[in-house]
Amino acid sequence: MNLALLDPFAVASDFPETLTETLSYGYSSAVKFNQKGDYLASGLGDGTIVIIDVETNNTIMVLRDHVRAITSLCWSSSGRYLLSSSRDWKVNLWDLKTGKVVRFAVFSSPIWNCVMIPDHVYQFAAAVVDDEAVFVDMEDESDIKITQLSPDPVESVEGSSEGNEEREASVPATGNKRKRLKKHVTLTCAVSIDGRYVFAGTNRGWVNVIYTDTLKTIGSLKVCDSNIKSIEIAPTGERMIVNSGDKTLRQYSVSSDYREFELEQKYQDVVNKIQYNSVKFSHDSEYMCASTLGSTHDIYIWETKMGSLVKILEGSKEELIEVDWNYRRCSIVATGMDSGMIYWWSVVVPQKWSNLAPDFEEIEENIDYEEKEDEFDMIDSDRDSDRMDAKEQSEVDVVTREEKDARGFPFIDSFVIDSVLTETDGA
Amino acid sequence: MYSLALSVPSTHTSPVSTVKISPDGKFLATASADKTIKLWTLQGKLVRTLHGHTEGVSDVEFSPNSKYLASCSDDLTVRIWDLSTGETIKILKSHTYHVNSLRFNYKGSILITGSSDENIRIWDVKRGRCLKTLSAHSDAISCVDFSFDASIVASGSYDGLVRLFDLDTGQCLKTLIDDTRGTNFPVSYVRFSPNAKYVLSSSLDGYLRLWDYMNNRVVKTYKNADGNPVAEKYSLGTNFITCGGDQMINSGDENGHIIFWDIQSKEIRLVLEGSEKGLPIMQVDSYKGGEVIASVSLGGEMRVWERDGSK
């Protein structure tokens, strides 16, 4: 509700500009906002997960079970469940009502990342180190179904590769000896917005599109020759960014049936040759931001239509790893590599001084004031109350809420984590 | 429209300031100048008396999960009570004069307090620490309220202004002043409408005003019958009654009446007697949009009313 009263230019900003906060609670290795943007989950290097209340910047809940660094976090759309993967070979599903693990799955090696299937709290896909990617259904606690997903690409999907030469070379021909030596391994997973397809990126530059109903690869996209580091799907579902080891971000437009991919933009810094650590789209996929490997300590924001760099977020004194974008509050957070701190960029709204005195007005330049005809007229009180009555005829509705806030996001009811006051932190 | 379900004579030894119904609809809490808070079942059974404040208690508020109660007092402190044990679990100190009003956000994580030291403070309840101080008023704060999404804080002050603040930044978003009459009487109570598009303010000139704050306009003025003021001396609590398809404004007056106005026509639809002695009705609190209402008079007479089918 507050947005409607704030400076419209500040509210309409597409991305934050100012480093406003740093949060320090252990070494943070993964950060993720819930859908409403009122809680931030931060996974720590020691396996602890803390839930931070964005309004107070206080830890509202501490989740302890993992014993190695958290590699990824994923909120359910209701905000009640949190999926976490860790280097301790485990994926946990937490119920934030109780703060307990409700389901878990154990694998044979550390987990690169996991993604919850939207609207299916108990289903997830995960990329496992040195093993095949998995699709897991944990609905039945006593019978957790783990299906391995083949990392081998199938016939490449339309408009995929960057050149014919590459496309020919990348067809998994049986006679090619060199290809046989190096087997495909899935390094990262992503899921489509509707939850029907899983995207799996391999060490040899392929993205496999897997249909979640059949768990079969329906198409593969050759992106490059080096490993795929991460895949980011835009909240609108129409765009995808593939971050690969060849120091390039490739932006694809995705067809609604997930069978056609068209390369829209390539982002690379040819001079500095920077690798990108983590990528995130804005809510309307008009912008995207990325953290960079190495000596630059900044976050780059590009406009995605033309591929132009529009903003560099500065202020951190170390390399930034994980980024997440809080759409409703228009802020970006990133974790620092050395300190594990969380850096927080937001929009700073200027105080309008005329809000403090309603009879004052902020004007651009001096004007000659012209007195209104009735400005100092005496109004006798009887007539005044008649006039007031006449003015107050309009119907008022005190119950029906606005559907959307001033940024265009609908008001949603998200799960509220019960605040417990009698326990100390983590007890 | 309402039938009397419960009437409890005063058990407090000094004037009573407020009554609140817990969000789960099971308990009532009354606060008094006798430094105590009493916790009741909705059936009128005294559960426990909370001792701790060293001066009179001005306002209480249940946490949204009904597990805790916050209270503010003339002893400059705010206390948070665990209702299962009756113990004080937090004492919030920072205000330098009487604390008059307080409110939780819908999550129960933030508490706002308004004080006679002219400041509004925003507290992180869990840490028991003051996050922000909003100092924009030039007289005692009589009342504070949250919008439903807890993004705006409304405050009413004896300086005659209603101000709206942004919770996040602490900036003043709006100032509402009724200058049609030339003078500004102290604002004694403010309340957001359920959809937070309007603010209802009570002034000590005896009127209630419904503000369309986006347009800086009073859209409705509610008056007591026969030209009497609603309130001239006390901060009397107001409510929006929204159950059963009705939209009504509800407040006590200083002569023992509980008045219900039709929100659109501004006519008085119903008057209930809240006090045998005609004492001011300090607070009327509603549950489920007015299915149940509880009232308390300055003398401590507590009454609970239930909505029935009759018109």
Automatic annotation (TrEMBL), chain A:
A GO cellular component annotation in the UniProt record: Set1C/COMPASS complex
Ranges occupied by WD repeats: 63-104
Main location group: nucleus
Keyword Nucleus recorded: yes
InterPro entries for the chain: RBBP5/Swd1, WD40/YVTN_repeat-like_dom_sf, WD40_repeat_CS, WD40_repeat_dom_sf, WD40_rpt
Compartments where located: Nucleus
Start and end residues of each stretch annotated as Disordered: 149-177, 379-399
Gene3D superfamilies linked to this entry: YVTN repeat-like/Quinoprotein amine dehydrogenase
Keyword vocabulary terms for this entry: Nucleus, Repeat, WD repeat
Pfam families: WD40
Basic and acidic residues: compositionally biased ranges: 380-399
Name of the molecule in the record: DEKNAAC102886
The species this protein was found in: Brettanomyces naardenensis (Yeast)
UniProtKB/TrEMBL annotation, chain B:
Gene3D superfamilies per record: YVTN repeat-like/Quinoprotein amine dehydrogenase
WDR5-like beta-propeller domain mapped to chain residues: 10-306
A cellular component annotation (GO) from this entry: Set1C/COMPASS complex
Alphabetized Pfam families for the sequence: Beta-prop_WDR5
Gene Ontology molecular-function annotations: histone binding
InterPro entries: Beta-prop_WDR5-like, WD40/YVTN_repeat-like_dom_sf, WD40_PAC1, WD40_repeat_CS, WD40_repeat_dom_sf, WD40_rpt
Keyword presence, Transmembrane helix: no
UniProt keyword annotations, A-Z: Repeat, WD repeat
WD repeats: 9-43, 50-91, 92-133, 134-175, 180-221
Protein name: DEKNAAC101063
UniProt organism field: Brettanomyces naardenensis (Yeast)
